[in-house]
Amino acid sequence: MDNKTIACISTPLGTGAICIIRISGSKCLEIAKKVFFCKTQDLQPRYLYLGDFIYKDVKDKCLMVHFKAPLSYTGENMVEFQCHGGEFLAEKILQALLDCGAVLAENGEFSKRAFLNGKLTLDKAEGIIDVINATSEAELKAGYRMLKGDLKNEVGKFQKILTDCLAELEVTLDYPEHDDEEITLNSAKKILSSLYQQITNLLQTSNTGKIIKHGLNIAIIGKPNVGKSSLLNALIGENRAIVTNIAGTTRDTITETISFNGMKFNFIDTAGIRESEDIVEKIGIERSKQSINESDIVLVVLDSSTDLQEEDKILLDLTKNEKRIILINKTDLNQKENNNYINNLQNNKCLKNNEIILEISALKKQNIEKIKEVIFNKIIDNKMDASALILTNIRQTNNLKIVQQTLNEAIEATDNKTVDIVAFLVRRVWEELGKITGETEIESVIDEIFSKFCLGK
């Protein structure tokens, strides 16, 4: 453990009511007493003292609290100053602490010390990052569950199962005359197969976790002038995209994000798909097609004020294998007497079974909220519990995939290998699980994780 005493500003820089500067290390109280003065010099841990910060030309009325190891965030002695929230003042106070013997903390160094001192596991540290960076309710809930140790507890249960299984295998290895190897291997296979299913179930949450963390990508596509840009503006509640009656106005993709029922929806307005000789428009059309492939859901916009056209049929064919919603737009306009879009779509065999179809008016904002509800209830799954344990971290997901693969090797080994080989594979599974919490993780991975933290955390 590095014995340097580190210091940093822990609140965002800028003007505000207060600013917190923290120091951690064996000399933090010694440094604090050089600059902080109050009525008593007997500073008790976990008490908040009002006093004066004085060092050369730096002066402020502030609060100070001292945490004695190991009862602190880092597990070391810590001091926090709560000073007035001026950016210039905070920088001056930090510099005073550095002049008195502290060194500037690196990104995430407080949390890294907490991990190295056994106050924090890697999965909890990543939960902290997720909570800090959360931009939706679902993401915040998922991060909090990680932070409070739900994944650590689940990994602990898995490791306990492996430990018990390994104990049975070791008994057979140590006392072969008292245990039947075939019976032991059959028992291990049942235990490991059950664990394999539990890990598979947890891994399946990573698809939901990806949506929670990055949002649902929703491409809005259609031929020119069907109302895609008007629809985007209606969905996000502001005039973000340019709307004209000139075909081909949108030349590039525009992405806007909103939150709906705690989930992030990333709406992507695309260039109208049609045959074009305009080189810029052609580039936009290719990007539109790329957006279709990269989206989770496609909103296919059709114009109910005109007859079903060949361009519409091409678009419907282009998206037939995608998860999509058909939006029949411009229902506020007078339609031709026999212009029944749904019948035309059915007659032309453009629809899939149980196709989701909504009649809307982007201009009049009719059924706009219904689109969001359908996406959430029909597409995402209204039974999804964002507060349940969900994998949102790619490192943890990749570790679990390795666990799953190694576990499968161990299960197969129970059929054609000896007890010692199965025991070896079970130990490997246990160690791979330990990488999720940091029990068996290598230093380079630890450094990478904590480098993602902001200064002062």
Provide structural commentary.
The strands form 2 sheets. The chain has a 7-stranded mixed β-sheet with strand order 3-4-5-6-2-1-7. The chain has a 6-stranded mixed β-sheet with strand order 9-10-8-11-12-13, sandwiched between helices. The chain is flat. Helices cover 47% and strands 17% of the residues. α6 runs antiparallel to α7. The chain has 3 domains: 115 residues, Gyrase A, domain 2; 134 residues, tRNA modification GTPase MnmE domain 2 (Four Helix Bundle (Hemerythrin (Met), subunit A), Up-down Bundle), CATH 1.20.120; 168 residues, P-loop containing nucleotide triphosphate hydrolases (Rossmann fold, 3-Layer(aba) Sandwich). The protein has 457 residues and is of the alpha/beta class. The protein is built from 16 helices and 13 strands.
Main-sheet strand order equals 3-4-5-6-2-1-7
- Uncertain regions: pLDDT < 50 for 5+ in a row? 242-251, 274-278
Distance between the termini: 18 Å
SSE topology string: EEHEEEEHEHHHHHHEHEEHEHEHEHHHH
